[in-house]
Amino acid sequence: MGNSKAGFQNWFKSHFDGAGETIASVVVVLILVPLGIMGIFGSKFVADNIVSILCTVLSAATVFGYQVWRTQRKIRKDTNEINQGVIDLVRSRSPYTVIAPKISGELAESLKGAKEWSFRGGSGRWQRECVLPQLSEEKNRAVPYNMLILDPTEPDLCRQYADYRNKHRVDGSVSTNGTVRNEILACIVACAWYSRMTRVAARVYLTQTYSPLRQDMSSRMVAVTVSDKSQSGLFVPHSSWYYESLRDEFNEHCARSPEVQFAGTENLPSDWRALTSGDVKSVLRSTKVRKLDGTLRKLCESPDLSAESLEEIRQLVFKGRHA
Fold first, then answer.
1. What is the mean pLDDT of residues 308-317?
2. Average pLDDT of the segment spanning 78-95
3. What is the CATH architecture of 96-317?
4. Which residues does 321 contact at the CB level (< 8 Å), separation at least 6?
5. Any idea what the Cα angle at residue 39 is, between residues 35 and 41, rounded to 5°?
6. Is the sign of the CA dihedral 187, 290, 219, 120 positive or negative?
7. How many helices (H) and strands (E) does the chain have?
8. What pLDDT is attached to residue 12?
9. 204 three-class SS
10. What is the DSSP letter of 273?
11. With the CA atoms of 52, 55, 57 and 59 taken in that order, what torsion angle do they form, in degrees rounded to the nearest 10?
12. Could you state, in order of their start, the residue ranges of all structural domains in the chain?
């Protein structure tokens, strides 16, 4: 029985290509069968038994059509599964492009259950809003977190990045070297707070150059994006050779960059909502930067930040966090 069914399916696939041919075949059957009966038994027999003949033919055609429909549905299902399998295989081994509207969702999906995270970019807004809060939900183990951002004590560097960002602004806002500096300092305060209050083990490195590219890295992928929200992003799965190259480059860059040494965190409030401008000032004045020769310098060697800047930094530290 199994061989007969398989034989029928093979015969069907070789003789009927799509719904059009199938419908045409059913119509031909409906016409030819009554004509054949008429030729054998005569027109009087057909006239006397027309209802029975039509019912029999229609029943047979219905059964045949249903079997055809089931077979075609299975063929489509199998084809779709094969196509999806090929797509999944390619995506698991090769870099792939994600269109702009889907980048946030793809990043959020990659962040779920992440055991580590690294970031290379300009000011780290998304890191403060989403990444650090998400990583801090882990209570049972340390979560390594590395951040490579612009040196906030270099006004020209901050200005260059502000000019680049302004080229792609669509909301009418304008960045300056001061706003970029404050965003970076907010990242440093945020990392200091999460390192003190959660299992996030944050390390912050300062780079003297900026790149239009931003990189978010986990143990599963690297996402390469730009500040222009209309542009697509490149996602590199961990099984791709390019993944290891990007990770190696990031680690080498960190090894050649000054590292922030958090200090002044002992009096930070455990409730992030209770952070004050005074807390921000204490952290920034106490935090040091370890230079490549091993010596330390103050993070903020210039005169103290204004009260307005400290308040702006305080608001930025946890801006976008909801819980």
1. 96
2. 68
3. 2-Layer Sandwich (3.30)
4. 128, 129, 133, 272
5. 110
6. positive
7. 12, 10
8. 47
9. strand
10. G
11. -140
12. 2-93, 96-317
